[in-house]
Design brief:
Elements (H helix, E strand, L loop, with lengths): L2 H25 L5 E2 L2 E2 L3 H27 L7 H20 L1 H16 L4 H22 L9
Helix pairs in contact: 1-2, 3-4, 4-5
């Protein structure tokens, strides 16, 4: 791991740990438990503890990798996934839900994960059909239909 990458992870972990401590501190101003039910201070306390603990785990992992001189994974896949998801969100209203999900799943499987094109198309078709059926028919959610 590069020194800049490790330092960035440590700074980000400290930032989130500070928020966790703030949540814990704020939770003490509310009641935690009454009878058999949690009160308004329970969830902020729980979230604060989880956020602080997970931040500590990230910081320890970054420090361990920094000392071990571990290699960082390439950032190309996450950037490609973020781009595909952003294009999908913008394109849902233009081409409709089913087609946007089909195209994004095909792009993820074929371009990012490097699966065979015919397999990518089959998986994307099944996923988009299943999601459309689930949201439209079973849950009654109105989805963008496209042109």
């Amino acid at each position: 791991m590069s020194r800049i990458g490790a330092a960035g992870e440590l700074v980000l972990a400290a930032f989130f740990a500070a928020f966790g401590v703030l949540w814990i501190y704020g939770a003490f101003g509310f009641p935690f438990w009454e009878g058999f039910a949690p009160q308004s201070g329970f969830m902020p306390l729980l979230y604060g503890i989880l956020l602080t603990g997970l931040s500590a785990a990230v910081a320890l992992n970054a420090a361990r990798e920094r000392n071990a001189g571990a290699e960082r994974e390439p950032i190309g896949k996450p950037i490609a996934l973020i781009f595909i998801v952003a294009v999908t969100v913008v394109g849902i209203d233009v081409v409709g839900f089913a087609l946007a999900v089909f195209l994004s799943m095909t792009a993820i499987d074929a371009a990012v994960e490097r699966l065979l094109l015919h397999r990518s198309i089959l998986v994307a078709a099944a996923m988009s059909a299943g999601l459309t059926l689930m949201f439209r028919a079973w849950l009654g959610v109105p989805l963008p239909a496209g042109p």
